[in-house]
């Protein structure tokens, strides 16, 4: 598809070479700070899920919604924010999104119930929905050669991973000494700093030609994604055959079909479906959904193992996530060279195979094992795989589209990546809790419980499921139930890792077939976007 030539504003002042370099660097710094903030919010609950669950007495489905309330807006609004950035400027969008995220963290920091925390997470997630695509397209707009594009994308990926590295350290260290709400308050301060940095450092860029807001498409995709996630998350507690759950899946099918129909007929669609005729782009989208589901599903599984089943302290539970996310910053120079000289195909295959192996290795470690050393191998493999995959996915998607569509491609990459990450906790939670409930029901049937005790246990299970029973304070009865609940939860979450490993392996096959294993440089196209 031919790109529509962009128009440079006639009033744009000419810049000297030093000024241009300064604005180029400032834009990359601002974009990296923004994606770092967005990723902090995404990972923040992981190390403190156990504390949140115990503090708020959250059920299994509520605990899943606390993570997914952030991820849902990030997934369903990414395309619309990609359009807004193209129309009105990525810098303006990034500043506003950072401030909106700060408001959400304020709501979370004052929460005293699961409902308020979920609300705050949703507001912050709306901000992140803009931060992910705006930060990426800001960087691609100022990197117009193969070498600078590779370095810019590697910097963005490293900042994303750095955010995931900071999040567990931040939340774990704070919650060791204060309530979990303070972790969200501290992230709100980072959001304000990010807004100020973007306003002072970044240069504005846009690509308004042929772009307009597509409200019918946005409504259809939003309703479809919310319906899908509602069905998956509520299925274990409400019953897979219950009317609300069945209607959720029906609504998903209806609205996703409506989205395709609307986008095909729209004069200015939020997502040009013909992008998926580009083989590498379509493959990268499929890999993003499947592979990121596997990665974040496995990370969510690990957070439940450490914080809820093992009752590890927040700081100890944070260390494994620090190891996972600490890999990418150290291999930043390698990522840039691999992107430029090797290309995304071998990186994607290697990364997804590493992730699949890590999931299976983690499953082989007994859930009773609380030491760090037995987990070190799968943690390192997870970190290496994540760095390779995120860098290569972004390059594979953005580098193969016409210059005028890099904003749309960046937003689409964010959508499908975030959709995969959103499905991770939802599907893993649904599968694990369903299997745990079945195991627990069978085991407790043979336990020596009195009729009164059976009534108490049944009431807790009905209200909150196996996680609630595992952490409930039932006096001496809790100690008697602990072996049953621990075994049931370990059974469910261990088997969920088979699903996440299979997803990563499937993504590796897609990469090998559709992107290829042959090394070769991936050359980004020269940007023709307007810049002020």
* Overall average pLDDT: 82
The total of beta strands comes to 2
Helix tally? 18
Q: How does the major sheet shape up?
A: 2 strands, antiparallel
Strand content: under 5%
Poorly predicted runs are: 1-13, 521-532
Q: What strand line-up does the widest sheet have?
A: 1-2
How far apart the termini lie comes to: 26 Å
Order of helices and strands: HHHHHHHHEHHHHHHHHHHE
Radius of gyration: 23 Å
Principal-axis shape equals globular
- Oligomer kind: single chain
Query: Fraction of residues in helices?
Result: over 70%
Structural class: mainly alpha
Question: Could you explain the architecture of this structure?
Answer:
This protein has about 525 residues and is mainly α. About 80% of the residues lie in helices and about 0% in strands. It has a two-stranded antiparallel sheet. Helix 11 runs antiparallel to helix 15 and helix 16 packs antiparallel against helix 17 (about 450-470). The longest helix is centred in the last third of the chain and has 40 residues, at about 405-445. The two termini are about 25 Å apart.
Describe the protein's topology.
Elements: H1 17-43, H2 49-56, H3 60-76, H4 78-88, H5 90-109, H6 114-142, H7 146-177, H8 181-201, E1 205-206, H9 215-238, H10 243-265, H11 279-309, H12 314-330, H13 332-342, H14 344-364, H15 373-398, H16 406-445, H17 451-471, H18 476-515, E2 530-531
Antiparallel strand pairs: 1-2
Helix pairs in contact: 1-6, 1-7, 1-8, 2-11, 3-6, 3-9, 3-16, 4-5, 4-6, 4-16, 5-6, 5-8, 6-7, 6-16, 7-8, 7-12, 7-13, 7-15, 9-10, 9-16, 11-12, 11-14, 11-15, 11-16, 11-18, 12-15, 14-15, 14-18, 15-16, 16-17, 16-18, 17-18
């Amino acid at each position: 598809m031919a790109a529509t030539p962009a128009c440079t504003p006639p009033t744009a002042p000419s810049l000297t070479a030093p000024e241009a370099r300064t604005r180029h660097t400032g834009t990359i710094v601002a974009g990296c700070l923004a994606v770092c903030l967005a990723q902090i919010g995404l990972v923040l609950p992981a190390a403190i899920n156990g504390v949140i669950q115990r503090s708020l007495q959250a059920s299994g489905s509520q605990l899943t919604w606390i993570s997914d309330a952030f991820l849902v807006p990030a997934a369903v609004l990414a395309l619309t924010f990609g359009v807004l950035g193209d129309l009105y400027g990525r810098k303006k969008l990034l500043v506003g999104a950072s401030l909106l995220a700060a408001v959400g963290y304020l709501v979370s920091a004052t929460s005293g119930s699961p409902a308020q925390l979920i609300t705050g997470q949703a507001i912050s997630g709306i901000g992140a929905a803009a931060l992910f695509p705006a930060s990426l397209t800001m960087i691609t707009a100022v990197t117009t050669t193969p070498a600078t594009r590779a370095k810019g994308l590697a910097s963005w990926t490293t900042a994303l991973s750095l955010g995931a590295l900071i999040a567990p350290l931040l939340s774990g260290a704070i919650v060791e000494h204060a309530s979990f709400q303070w972790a969200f308050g501290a992230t709100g301060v980072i959001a304000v700093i990010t807004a100020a940095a973007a306003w002072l450092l970044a240069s504005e860029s846009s690509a308004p030609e042929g772009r307009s807001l597509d409200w019918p498409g946005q409504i259809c995709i939003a309703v479809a994604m919310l319906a899908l996630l509602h069905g998956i998350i509520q299925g274990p507690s409400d019953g897979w055959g219950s009317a609300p759950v069945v209607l959720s899946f029906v609504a998903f099918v209806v609205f996703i079909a409506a989205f395709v129909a609307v986008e095909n007929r729209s004069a200015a669609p939020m997502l040009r479906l013909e992008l998926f005729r580009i083989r590498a782009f379509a493959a990268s989208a499929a890999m993003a959904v499947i592979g990121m589901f596997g990665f974040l599903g496995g990370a969510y599984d690990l957070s439940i193992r450490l914080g809820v089943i093992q009752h590890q302290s927040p700081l100890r539970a944070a260390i494994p996530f620090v190891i996972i996310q600490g890999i990418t910053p150290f291999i930043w120079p390698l990522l840039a060279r691999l992107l430029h000289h090797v290309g995304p195909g071998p990186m994607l295959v290697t990364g997804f195979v590493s992730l699949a192996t890590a999931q299976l290795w983690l499953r082989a470690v007994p859930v009773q094992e609380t030491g760090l050393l037995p987990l070190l191998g799968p943690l390192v493999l997870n970190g290496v795989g994540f760095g390779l995959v995120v860098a290569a996915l972004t390059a594979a998607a953005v580098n193969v589209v016409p210059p005028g569509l890099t904003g749309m491609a960046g937003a689409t990459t964010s959508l499908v990546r975030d959709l995969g990450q959103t499905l991770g906790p939802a599907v893993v939670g649904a599968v694990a809790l369903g299997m745990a409930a079945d195991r627990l029901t069978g085991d407790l049937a043979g336990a020596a419980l009195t009729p009164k005790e059976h009534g108490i246990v049944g009431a807790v299970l009905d209200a909150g499921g196996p996680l609630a029973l595992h952490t409930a304070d039932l006096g001496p009865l809790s100690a008697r139930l602990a072996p049953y609940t621990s075994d049931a939860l370990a059974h469910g979450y261990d088997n969920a890792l088979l699903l996440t490993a299979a997803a990563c392996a499937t993504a590796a096959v897609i990469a090998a077939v559709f992107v290829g294993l042959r090394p070769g440089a991936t050359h980004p196209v020269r940007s023709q976007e307007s810049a002020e």
